[in-house]
Amino acid sequence: MDSYYVRFVVSDEPHFLESCSLCRKTLSLNSDIFMYRGDMAFCSQECRQEQIESDEKKPRRWRKASSSSSRSKNSVAGKTVWTETLVVS
């Protein structure tokens, strides 16, 4: 499939505006493209909304998992202090 977008870097990976980020339907020049987070293109509002809802669920699962495993409770001068550790690489 020939792309109608100019490519500056040779790559086997398709340009992000060639297909829907969710359903992989080919995006055409004559149709609306619905963007999300700057580099995710979608063929419809429904596909875009499904991705948004999926992304909104991810942080909630992370918070629940991390809060139960990495929290510790310390007592300082009669007050309870909660501490957490976050490792980023």
From TrEMBL:
Source organism, top-level taxon: Eukaryota
Alphabetically ordered keywords of this record: Metal-binding, Zinc, Zinc-finger
Keyword Metal-binding tagged: yes
Keyword flag Zinc-finger: yes
Family annotation (InterPro entries): FLZ1/2/3, Zf-FLZ_dom
UniProt biased composition (Low complexity): 65-75
Record domain FLZ-type: where: 15-59
GO molecular function terms attached to this record: zinc ion binding
Region (Disordered): 54-89
Zinc finger annotations (FLZ-type) as residue ranges: 15-59
Family the UniProt entry places it in: Belongs to the FLZ family.
Official protein name in the record: FLZ-type domain-containing protein
Naturally occurring in which organism (per UniProt): Brassica carinata (Ethiopian mustard)
